Every structure is written in structure tokens, then in C-alpha cells.
From TrEMBL:
Name of this protein: MFS transporter
A Pfam family of this chain: ATG22
Transmembrane region(s): 12-34, 54-76, 83-101, 107-127, 148-169, 181-201, 236-257, 269-290, 302-320, 360-383, 389-407
Keyword Glycosyltransferase set for record: no
Lineage top rank: taxon: Bacteria
InterPro entries to which the protein is assigned, alphabetical: Atg22-like, ATG22/LtaA_families, MFS_dom, MFS_trans_sf
Domain Major facilitator superfamily (MFS) profile: residue ranges: 236-425
Membrane topology: Multi-pass membrane protein
PANTHER family the UniProt entry points to: AUTOPHAGY-RELATED PROTEIN 22
Length: 425
């Protein structure tokens, strides 16, 4: 395989920059900062967690609803980059503004977080859809995996810098408060994200599009309605989305519950951050490896491998007892977390009609967002019924098995084969 082109590298570098938001704002620093702020303001731990959950639900629902609509409009010539830019600016500016919200105003903090999250996830919708513009079907697996690999590596740099500043502040090595250190982390995230997005703006262009027509918004709604009515024409594509809904739900649930597992086993916050960091480092080369193996064995077969690894993870988690077990579990997740996400994106990219890529990636976004509901609910109900939280985790095997079975019904697209032909098989 020849070297990555300038467009492919520029596209992948956005993952390098944007992933700082995922780890610092979504996963590590902001949740801790917000919880401390809410507690200081007299909000109970359960209430503050509930408010954060409501906030996540709000922006998830908003984006899931508007994703296909905006995506359909963005399929017109020149519109994809405009929508991407608008969400990118919303995300980076709101992230930076988190640094200036008074530490005792937890409500304003959450409002700002909603806009930051909308910007980040909205920009990712159009970023994912750009994959059809920057590369060929034959190279999609490698390019998508390259992006995820860069994301895992790139996110560790601002993460280490931010955590170092916070720890040095906590130990009074730096003459600043922990609050100020956390605010600096938010600014680092925004600047890192913005700087490494510049190649995307300079070198990536929308190659596939629909010619502009009168009343584009009205016409977009008509096209969206037509797609939904003629869903049978895209049988392969929507079968894949159903499979994706189930197995990515399991992946997301494992990620979201991992910290709780570690805490239950007695890992300190510092040790949990170390595990998170090592997981990011290990996930990077494995994401790229998945892409290379997909070129040799096909993307679908490597998705099978990833799903089977997660089934093993669920079974192993059922017997989790020691900190060593948790490390083994985390490393197992690291081997397939990036690969399964990267190949899902490229597989879907091969199935979609290129001129309508934004519209269909809007549906991809909906299935991914609403998938985040089923898994945690399944774990909660199973744990309550059985009285055993380990059974709740084990129940996730159901999601992966359903995803595996449905995926087996989806034809593997081949280069240069029209999606309509694939869909009709």
C-alpha cells in the first residue's frame, strides 16, 4: 500500500486534535471538576450525577434528531465544509469558555458543556462523512484505522500535560490552585483541537455532492423522506446499521462502566488514570493493525474478530476479582476498541452512496447515539433482577451475539461495485 496522501493525512490529523476533547472533557478532567464544583455548592452526589446524565441525554437527543436533516442539506455542493466548520467553532469556543465559567456556577458549567458536546459530536458527524471524499474504497479501512490510531496517540499528549499540571498544583509544586489547573486543561484542549484541525480546513474538500437547487431545505426534507420510504433499496446499508446498533452499544457500555469496575476493585483515582493512559497507548497500534488486517482478510472478518474479543471481555468480566484481572480486561479492550470503531466507519463508508454520504452518516450517528441507551439499561435491569452486578455485565454478550448474527447477513462491498447492486443482493 502506498503512503498516505496529503488529503488522507490532513483528514486523519483531525482525529489527533479532536481526541483531546474526548479524553479530557468527556472522560477525565471535566467530570471530576464539575462534580467538585457541584458538591461545593451543596448539591448531593446522586443529584450532581443525575444532572450530568440529563445533560448528556439532552445533547445526545438533539444531535440524533437533527443529524440526518443537517446531513441531507450538507450533501449539496460546498455545504459539508460549512456545517463542519460551524460545529467545530461551536465546540472549540465552548470548550475554551469552560475555563472562564465561575467554579461555583455548576449550572452554567453544564450549559456550556452542552454546547461544547454538540460542537464536538456534530463536527464528527461531518468529519466521518468526509472519508468518502479523501480516499478510495480500497484504502478506506487503512485510512479510517490510521485516523483512530492517531487519535489515541494524539490524545495522550495534552492528557499527560493536563494531568501533570493538575497533580503539580495539588502538591503545591506550582503556585496555582487545582481549579486553575483544571481550567488550564480546558484551554489546552481547545487550542490542541483547533491547531491540528487546520490541515483539515486547508486540504480536505467535498468531492462528491448534489448540485444546488431552489429551496434546498425543502428539497432536503423531500430527499430524506424518500430515503426512509425507499429503505428497501438500501437493504445492506440498513442491515449493517442494525448490527452496528447492537455491537457498538456493547462497546460503549464496557467503556462507560470500566471506571466503576476499577473503583469497586479498590483502584485509586491516580491508578485509574494510569490504566486509562496505558489503554490509549495500546489501542493506537492495534487500531492501525486492524486496518491492515482488514485489507488482507476483509473488513467484515476483522469486525467478527473485534466482536468476539468483546464477548470474551464480557465473560472474563463476570469472573473479575483482582486488580490484575482489571488490567488484563483493560488490555483486552484496548486491542479491539479502536479497530472495531475504525472498521465500522470504513465499512459504512463503502456502503453509502457517495453523493449522499452526509445524509447516511446522519443515520449512522442516530444509531450510534441511541445505542448508548440499551446497554446500560440491560446491565441495570439484569443486575437488579439477579441481585448480581456481574450478571449485568455478562448480559452484554446478548448485544454482541445479535450484532454478530445480523452482521453475517450484510454483504461485503467490493471496490468499484455500485451500492445499489450490493443493496439488491
Amino acid at each position: 500500500m502506498k503512503k498516505f496522501s496529503k488529503e488522507e493525512k490532513s483528514w486523519a490529523l483531525y482525529d489527533w486534535g479532536n481526541s483531546a476533547y474526548s479524553i479530557i472533557i468527556t472522560t477525565a478532567v471535566f467530570p471530576i471538576y464539575y462534580k467538585a464544583s457541584a458538591t461545593e455548592a451543596g448539591v448531593s452526589l446522586s443529584d450532581s450525577t443525575a444532572y450530568l446524565g440529563y445533560t448528556i441525554a439532552i445533547f445526545t437527543f438533539i444531535l440524533a434528531m437533527i443529524g440526518p436533516i443537517l446531513g441531507t442539506i450538507a450533501d449539496y455542493e460546498g455545504m459539508k465544509k460549512k456545517f463542519f466548520t460551524a460545529f467545530f467553532l461551536l465546540g472549540t469556543i465552548s470548550t475554551a469558555l469552560l475555563a472562564f465559567v465561575p467554579s461555583d456556577n455548576w449550572l452554567l458549567m453544564l450549559i456550556c458543556y452542552i454546547f461544547a458536546a454538540l460542537g464536538a459530536t456534530g463536527a464528527n458527524l461531518f468529519y466521518d462523512a468526509f472519508i468518502v471524499d479523501v480516499t478510495t474504497e480500497k484504502r478506506m479501512n487503512s485510512v479510517s484505522a490510521f485516523g483512530y490510531g492517531l487519535g489515541y496517540i494524539g490524545s495522550t499528549i495534552p492528557f499527560i500535560i493536563s494531568i501533570a499540571i493538575i497533580l503539580l498544583a495539588q502538591n503545591e509544586v506550582l503556585p496555582i490552585s487545582t481549579t486553575t489547573a483544571s481550567r488550564i486543561a480546558f484551554l489546552i484542549t481547545a487550542v490542541w483541537w483547533a491547531c491540528f484541525s487546520l490541515p483539515m480546513f486547508r486540504h480536505v474538500k467535498q468531492r462528491y455532492f448534489i448540485e444546488r437547487e431552489p429551496n434546498p431545505v425543502h428539497q432536503s426534507f423531500k430527499r430524506l423522506g424518500k430515503t426512509i420510504r425507499e429503505i428497501r433499496q438500501y437493504r445492506a446499508l440498513f442491515l449493517f446499521l442494525i448490527a452496528y446498533f447492537f455491537y457498538i452499544d456493547g462497546v460503549g457500555t464496557i467503556i462507560s462502566l470500566s471506571t466503576a469496575y476499577g473503583t469497586d476493585l479498590g483502584l485509586s483515582a491516580t491508578n485509574l488514570l494510569i490504566v486509562l493512559f496505558v489503554t490509549q497507548v495500546v489501542a493506537a497500534p492495534f487500531a492501525i493493525l486492524y486496518g491492515r488486517l482488514a485489507n488482507r482478510f476483509t473488513g467484515k472478518k476483522m469486525l467478527y474478530v473485534g466482536i468476539c474479543v468483546y464477548i470474551v471481555v464480557c465473560i472474563y468480566a463476570f469472573f473479575l476479582e483482582t486488580i490484575t484481572d482489571f488490567w488484563i480486561l483493560a488490555m483486552l479492550v484496548a486491542t479491539s476498541q479502536g479497530g472495531i470503531q475504525a472498521l465500522s466507519r470504513s465499512y459504512f463508508g463503502k456502503l453509502v452512496p457517495k453523493e449522499n454520504s452526509n445524509e447516511f452518516f446522519g443515520f449512522y450517528n442516530i444509531f450510534g447515539k441511541f445505542a448508548a441507551i440499551t446497554g446500560p439499561l440491560l446491565v441495570a435491569v439484569t443486575a437488579q433482577v439477579t441481585g448480581n452486578s456481574s450478571m449485568g455485565v455478562f448480559s452484554l454478550v446478548i448485544l454482541f451475539v445479535i450484532g454478530l448474527v445480523v452482521l453475517s447477513r450484510v454483504p461485503e462491498p467490493t471496490p468499484h461495485e455500485p451500492v445499489d447492486k450490493v443493496a439488491s443482493e
